Amino acid sequence: MASGAAAAAVERTSPEQARRAWPRWLAGGVALLVVAVVAVFWEAGGARLLLGVAGVLTAGRGAVLAASGRGRVAGVAALVVGAVAVAVALGPAGAASRVLLVAVPAGLLVGALALLGRGGAVRRSGQAALVWWTLVTGLLATTGLVAGWDRAADGATVVGALGLGLLGVVLLVGSASLRAIATRPAPARPAACAGCACGAGGCGVPR
Fold first, then answer.
1. Which of 96, 80, 86 is nearest to 154 (CA)?
2. Could you give the maximum distance between any two Cα atoms of the chain, in Å?
3. CA dihedral for 54, 56, 59, 64, sign (positive or negative)
4. Where are the alpha helices (DSSP H) in the chain?
5. What angle do CA 97, 167, 24 make, to 5 degrees?
6. How far is CA 166 from CA 36, 115, 139, 205, in A?
7. CA-to-CA distance for 159 and 18, rounded, in angstroms?
8. pTM for this prediction
9. DSSP-derived secondary structure for 98-127
């Protein structure tokens, strides 16, 4: 899902925007990889850390959507969901892991359905995410029925951490693509062109 969304974002980025964006993508990718590794190996608080970070990211995205005026309802909903996730993450570790048991499959399904409504490579990413949702949901349900729901909750934490780590990798790859766009030379202007009349719809160079 992240790969398709990131590819679409990179395609729409100008060199000037890329110069400002690629350092943020790089820092975000490294941070998400660190969080994913810590969440997997920190048995006592990995679920809380993962849920808290996911809640902050969801709330931040919701705030951006709500402020932009596009998808205001979805933005407010994401903001509320993110705030609730952060509140649960501040509570007991058991509660956080059980929330992840529901949130991980639900997040995959929502993301897959959102991407399926688009075209091109983004739609193909949605199809792949739908397959992963089926596999992950089946795996977690089977683990819960056979080995217990506590074990399934631990599995959901690992799956969520892997997903966050993959998002970090996508951001790192995207930052490299943005940096390549940022280094592209500016288009050459005709001789004697100072750019004075281009914004008014004409070139201004005598013919």
1. 96
2. 81
3. negative
4. 2-11, 15-41, 46-68, 72-89, 93-116, 120-147, 149-182
5. 120
6. 9, 17, 19, 51
7. 31
8. 0.72
9. HHHHHHHHHHHHHHHHHHHTS-HHHHHHHH
**CB-based contacts of 107: which residues, under 8 Å, 6+ apart?**
54
Q: Can you tell me the distance from the alpha carbon of 114 to that of 157, in angstroms, rounded to the nearest whole number?
A: 23
| Residue pair 207/200 in contact by the 8 Å Cβ criterion | no
Rounded to whole angstroms, how far apart are CA atoms 35 and 50? 7
What is the predicted pLDDT for the residue at 38?
92
Cα atoms in the 13 Å half-sphere on the side-chain side of 135: 7
Least Cα distance to 104 among 157, 49, 35 occurs for 157
Within 10 angstroms of residue 31's Cβ, the number of other Cβ atoms is 13
What is the full per-residue pLDDT of the chain (207 aa) written as tens digits? 455 555 555 556 667 777 787 888 889 889 999 999 998 888 888 889 999 998 898 888 888 888 876 777 888 888 888 899 899 988 877 888 888 888 888 888 887 887 777 766 667 777 888 888 888 889 999 988 988 888 888 888 888 898 888 888 888 888 888 887 777 765 555 555 555 555 555 555 444
CB 93 within 8 A of CB 44: yes
**Which pLDDT score, from 0 to 100, does residue 207 have?**
43
